[in-house]
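Format notes (please read before filing issues)

Several people have asked whether sequences and structure tokens are stored in separate files. They are not. Every record keeps both together, in the order shown below: the sequence lines, then the token lines. Line labels are part of the format and must not be stripped during preprocessing.
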Amino acid sequence: MSRRKTLTVSVGDVKIGSRHPVAIQSMTNVPTTDVSRCAKQIKQLIKAGCSLVRIAVPTKQDTKAFAKIVERCNVPLIADVHFNADRAIEAIEGGAAKIRLNPGNIKNKKDIVRVIDAAKAHKTAIRIGVNEASIRDLTKADVPQKKRVKLMLGEMKKYVRIFEKQNFTQLVLSAKSSDTVRTIEINRLIAETFDYPIHLGLTHAGLVEDAQIPSAVALGTLLADGIGDTVRVSIAGNPAVEVEIAKKILSSLGLCPIKRPELIVCPTCGRAEINVISLAKKIKKTIANIEVPIRVAVMGCIVNGPGEARDADLAICAGKGKAWFYKKGKKIGTASEDKIITEFIKILNKTKL
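Then the structure lines:
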């Protein structure tokens, strides 16, 4: 997929920009001052596939804890700063690989320059993160959508101008809304206006069951346009789930290597003569612990079955009382309905993964 060309920004040892893979990030949701618990969660996020982890530092106690967490973790950490430039400087001095500043909350130019000077001295990257909800002119519900997007872009331009006048270009830009369409529109405008890497996400997408579709629509649309160099799926819940959703979005666009099996299942219809859903769940359980990018198809009729079988590493085309097995599109055997799983396991064990 063709990606929009950007500058490269170093966040610790992670490179962000169009020449590098799209980086997945998440954010801890435990108290920063609970150093052990926070460090443990960060390690869980790394294991899930996170390249960068963001931590909230609202108080001086949090920035002190942040410095201790940096010492315990081997992934670049981002300090999420709002309202107080001193917290940003403390986090930078505590080892932050990147900090996030919100133009809606830190407006004093002298404070911004102080932060820039500290970031230069410590080679710390900065994300300018505009949130629609933080722009004071947007607190009224009747502000038209076009004006909301225009105001967000204006906030970004003013902030970036300050940084560029200070010759600071280690910038990542983001503009977020809880509204999917506005998030798409503002990021398209930012991509047209600047050549800095872009961080994608919604400000909040809801509980996990509600967050997946808006996140997939917003991030998927922009990524398909070639826009986006690092992503975060924001959900109310376990942040490791954010990482899993982000990986699925990226892998569906070919932007993230698939390291686990991919299961393709026909949607079922009146032609199906076997319980496809039940069979697919059993197959999913069978391949759950495999850590290779194998593509497995489970089909329930002759319409889609042969075609999907050709496109899969292994395929099961099931009919009334019987199933046909395919490997790389070639039929390799059959089994009665009660022996499908047993035979599939035999085939799986013989297959070089």
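For reference, the curators noted about this record: The chain is about 40% helix and 20% strand. The chain has a mean pLDDT of 91.
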